[in-house]
Amino acid sequence: MNQGIGRLLTPMLFSGDEGTEIVIYGEAQQQAQQWYVIPMQQDTKGNDLCYKILSFTAPDMALTYFGESDIRLSRDTGSNAQKWLLNAAGLQATARRRTAVRQRHRPSAVCWAERSRSGPLTS
User: Fold this and answer.
1) Does any domain span residue 122?
2) 1 alpha carbon, distance to own chain's centre
3) CA atoms of 72 and 88, how far apart (whole Å)
4) For the chain, what is the domain count?
5) Are 46 and 39 in contact (CB under 8 A)?
């Protein structure tokens, strides 16, 4: 959930279909507003650098960056367009969440994932 506006990343019409546009929407108690946030890369100290964000209702679908203000669901391929930086409050909080994720992937409501200003991350 976005702390500033209290809204969630939501697939349009709560759909899990490929190509579905992602919008910012108020909490609607829908499972489509829940996401799996899974670490993809780490730095040399083991801190998570970027994540893939998978749909809870369609776990083979990932948030994918297609361009300015265009985020859609597409098949999870691990591409750079599916790597996200999350605005975390600090490494300690990130490390606690990472431990919980490794123990068992749990869905959560994620509202805002930040991209680098130049677009998708590069490897």
Assistant:
1) no
2) 11
3) 23
4) 1
5) no
Distance CA 109, CA 56 (A): 10
Position 59 in a domain: yes
Residue 34 resides in a domain: yes
What six digits make up the tokens of 46? 């083991």
Q: What is the pTM of this model?
A: 0.70
Nearest of 27, 22, 21 to residue 7 by alpha carbon: 27
Give, as one character, the DSSP assignment of residue 17: S
Domain span including residue 27: 8-103
Q: How far apart are CA 94 and CA 8, in angstroms?
A: 20
Are 84 and 90 in contact by the 8 Å Cβ rule? The answer is: no
CA dihedral 69, 77, 121, 65 (to 10 degrees): 0
| CATH classification at residue 46 | 2.80.10.50
The tens digit of pLDDT for each residue in 20-58 reads: 999 999 999 999 999 999 999 888 888 888 999 999 999
Local structure of residue 12 (DSSP, 8 states)? G
Residue 119 lies in a domain: no
- Number of neighbours of residue 12 by Cβ within 10 angstroms: 15
